[in-house]
Design a protein that fits this description.
The chain is built from 27 helices and five strands. The protein is mostly helical. Strands 2-1-3-4-5 form a five-stranded parallel sheet, with helices on both faces. Helix 2 links the parallel strand 1 and strand 2. Helix 9 runs antiparallel to helix 10, helix 10 packs parallel to helix 12 and helix 15 runs antiparallel to helix 16. The longest helix is centred in the N-terminal third of the chain and has 26 residues. The radius of gyration is 29 Å and the shape is globular.
């Protein structure tokens, strides 16, 4: 008896191009044979991730059947990740993840990049034809929409979606989700929000709740976005995109500690998503939680071994957090952190030997490692070895320049560091992120533990001031400034306290002299500094008090 699929006049399987990726030849042959019985004619194979990426770079495939475990090198998740990142997989193409492994960690990790389906080994002909057949049918029906999106012709894609909703009720959910996403891409938040609201009025669907959160976030309605997204992850704790968007919303509010906790929860559930580990590391570092940051950077580096997102900056960031943890700690623990950092930098230099600035930034960090362990001779020697690479400071990248300044501060060359930062500020005056980093470094050109001590004292001073304890506030701020004397906000905090003390006792003229001296240290504060307006206001107030 002839197979049904081969008798169909317009066989949907026949014209498609297939790629089978598996490290076992027997499985590749078996899958090829099954596809041939469906009428498939154009079938290619690859036995590893590198070969698969190369094939997809030069050929278009409509259907990719990829095993998750491929031995050494890239796994199925890495392949899907890279194909998506390089846009080698069109929206109309189908990617089916094939696996004998069903661990939650694997499924959660692979799901991050949204394969069209999972097929669990062993695979028989009936199962493959049923799953693939429905996907191919959907692909054929929705092909015009996906082609328009691939061409970034979003108005045309929107029109096609609207026309298809009534014609293809079977695919209504896909069409509504795609339509809302298209409206957001063109900046039409109103129509996108209405679609999400209409869908949620009928069914409680996770993607619609996430979409509602996206619209609220884009509309800068942060409190509402946070409320929606908190409820989403509470009701659907495995919905990873919800955690990512919630963390983003919290960060937009400046609530970095709750953002970090949200990302930590997400990485516990799905530990193999490199970009989320990187985001956790970045937020933890901003929170000065170096233990969490180093752990997340370490995981980012590990996950990057076969990932398209592998980057020398990940190694440098791991080395930096380890350097911070080792700084000033010559115990066995501190020495272990320092040695771990050196090992990380050695691996980076070998792996990214052809990447510009890598060796220079690595040696700058090694200089700080030596200084942090009390070996100033080795630190100076390491820095001297970079004299040629650092000779032309005007040609340094922003990142390398900042690393150089940070290193100069660490070896006691504060004047040189400030001069360098001044030049960087002039070169990058229109780059807000770099200016912010320069300001932060000028404020706190010290190690991690000293920064933490100064910040705790600053908090104590603020609490004392708010409680009306002016003497306690002044003492705390002075102690903090003994650690970071150039910190702009701390200097202004102390000025504000001293002025308040003087207002309560006009006989204490010395307080005004102290204020004048403190403000004089900030006389070169640039107008673009975020504390400049406050500096000016306090300067005028001082002049009024002295008159």
């Amino acid at each position: 008896m002839t197979e049904p699929s081969s008798n169909v006049h317009d066989n949907p399987f026949r014209k498609l191009r297939y790629l089978i990726i598996d490290d076992f030849e027997s499985f590749r042959l078996s899958m090829r044979q099954m596809l041939r019985t469906f009428g498939a004619e154009h079938i290619e194979v690859a036995n590893n991730g590198a070969a698969a990426i190369q094939r997809c770079t030069y050929e278009h495939f409509d259907v990719v059947l990829c095993d998750y475990n491929l031995g050494e090198g890239k796994n199925g998740q890495h392949i899907l990740e890279e194909l998506r990142h390089k846009k080698l997989l069109k929206r109309a193409s189908l990617f089916l993840m094939v696996t004998a492994e069903t661990s939650k960690e694997m499924v959660m990790g692979a799901r991050e990049y949204q394969p069209d389906a999972y097929l669990t080994k062993p695979i028989n002909r009936a199962m493959l034809e049923k799953r693939l057949g429905s996907l191919v049918e959907q692909r054929r029906t929705l092909l015009p929409i996906n082609r328009a999106i691939d061409l970034e012709n979003y108005p045309e894609a929107i029109t096609l979606c609207l026309q298809s909703i009534g014609k293809f009720p079977r695919y209504r959910t896909w069409l509504m989700k795609t339509l809302a996403d298209l409206y957001q891409r063109v900046g039409d938040l109103s129509h996108a929000g209405k679609i999400y609201a209409d869908v949620l009025a009928q069914r409680d669907l996770s993607w619609a709740r996430l979409g509602k959160g996206k619209v609220l976030l884009a509309d800068q309605r942060y409190d509402e976005a946070v409320a929606v997204l908190k409820a989403l992850v509470a009701d659907h704790p495995d919905y990873m995109e919800g955690y990512d968007l919630l963390a983003e919303a919290l960060a937009q509010q400046g609530r970095l500690i709750p953002a970090q906790k949200t990302l930590q929860k997400a990485t516990e559930l799905s530990p193999n998503a490199l970009l989320r580990q990187k985001q956790l590391a970045t937020v933890a570092q901003a929170n000065q939680d170096m233990e969490t940051a180093s752990s997340a950077w370490r995981k980012t580096v590990q996950l990057g071994a076969h990932s398209i997102h592998d980057n020398a900056d990940h190694y440098l960031s791991l080395g930096t957090t380890l350097c911070e943890l080792s700084d000033g700690d010559t115990s066995d623990v501190g020495k272990a952190y320092a040695e771990d950092a050196r090992s990380t930098l050695a691996r980076m230099e070998k792996r990214f030997a052809d990447t510009p600035d890598v060796t220079t930034r690595s040696r700058l960090l090694q200089t700080r490692l030596h200084a942090g362990q009390g070996d100033l001779g080795a630190a100076q020697s390491c820095l001297d070895s970079l004299s040629d690479a650092l000779a032309d400071v005007d040609s340094l990248s922003a990142d390398t320049g900042l690393e150089y300044a940070r290193t100069l501060f660490r070896v006691g060359k504060d004047t040189d560091a400030k001069s360098l930062l001044g030049k960087l500020a002039q070169r990058f005056e229109n780059d807000g992120d770099i200016i912010q980093k320069i300001e932060n470094l000028l404020d706190e050109p010290v190690g991690f533990r000293q920064r933490m001590q100064a910040r705790d004292l600053n908090k104590d001073g603020i609490k004392a001031f708010e409680a009306g304890n002016l003497d306690g506030a002044a003492t705390a701020f002075r102690e903090a400034l003994a650690i970071v004397p150039s910190h702009t906000a701390l200097n202004l905090n102390l000025v504000q306290v001293l002025m308040k003390q003087y207002s309560g006792d006009r006989q204490r003229k010395a307080l005004l002299t102290d204020c004048q001296n403190l403000l004089a240290t900030l006389s070169t504060l640039p107008q673009q500094h975020r504390q400049y307006a406050r500096y000016q206001a306090l300067h005028k107030k001082l002049e009024a008090l002295r008159s």
